[in-house]
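Continuing the series of single-chain predictions for the mutant panel. This is the parent chain; the variants come on the following pages.
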Amino acid sequence: MSTIPNEDRRTAYIEGLRTLADALEANDAIPLPYDGTASELSIFCRSRDELAALTRALPGPKDKQVTDSASYGFELHGRLHGLRWVAFADRDDVCTARVVGTETVTRKVPVVEFEEVTETRDVIEWECHPILAEQDAALGATA
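Parent structure:
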């Protein structure tokens, strides 16, 4: 398999999608790809701006999910007709952490032997603002 230079990867990928779509449309014997039908097509956004561009460009309802996952932590799910997709972003890039209280937890810590320690820790709730709010506000202020 040949390596495509970075500047041509986007163009080559788009051409590949069009060729695949044409083949699927022309021949019902070709099975649908797993990604996008049985599972969601994954899109990884490296910034809030990339996520905002994606949100603005893809029509239809979207469902966001915020998790405590060690990787990413923010997911945006959508559908383009029969194609399902999910965009992943680092929660820290698109959400603001707010301490909404504390909770007391008991856990075992290694000493000579285990003993229970009670401590107070912050209870975090992630507030994820609408992806396009800042850009739309800025556009409205200059228009």
